[in-house]
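Throughout this chapter, every protein is written as a compact record of paired, labelled lines. The reader may check this reading against the record printed directly beneath this paragraph:
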Amino acid sequence: MISTASSTAEMITQGKLHINEENVEDKESGRMQCCGWLLVTVSFILAVLTCPLTIFLCVKIVKEYERAVIFRLGQIADRKPKGPGLFMILPCTDTFVKVDLRTVSFDIPPQEILTKDSVTVSVDGVVYFRIYCPISAVTKVSNAHSSTRLLAQTTLRNVLGTKNLAELLSDREGISISMQESLDEATDQWGIKVERVEIKDVKLPQQLQRAMAAEAEASREARAKIIAAEGEMKASRALKEASVVMAEAPSALQLRYLQTLNSIAAEKNSTIIFPLPIDMLQSFMQRK
């Protein structure tokens, strides 16, 4: 019973301390808000009194593809970016950061990557991205462009490290889509949208290039021999069918004989051929 009462007293004491701390924090935040409003009011009054001189400091312009994130006493004013067009700031209490919303591209420098089948290759690429949330791009990352570049390099190494050399050479589109999804997921909290990732060049070692060239040449020679053999087989079948047709029609053999003589006579050569008339061979063909 004594221990229960002591624990209850401790809980009550801790609750009172917590309430006191919250009250102190509320009072401090209230004082800070009062001071902030006082400074903003004083700055506004000074800007109005010195209007002809401070008009160039108060009026700012952002272009159609830009947005301005305004900080008033360290806090984002209105919780939304300004622009495009004209907007007003207070010279003493406000600062602003311009953010470009256009699509930006950058090259990924060549990366030495060890593939899944232990082949070292050098791969580079290009990334296209844009900022869709200016507030997140300013408040959640110190340098959005530099951070995206570094993340693209590490993502390229991580993704290609899980691929074989054959997949790397044949499935570039799939690798690009995988990299885009990984980058887009990682940069979404920074207010950045990765629109496209492309693999530009894959450089192989010289020894591997020679080996692949020899393999490709051997494959082409084997394919050429197969095609030549298939052509000879088809030609022999055609000759067999032609011989059967000529055997059934002797006049066809006579026409073929005359066509051969015509082609020989058309050639300009010094050899004179006296062909044997085919009628003299008719008796031998009948005996056979």
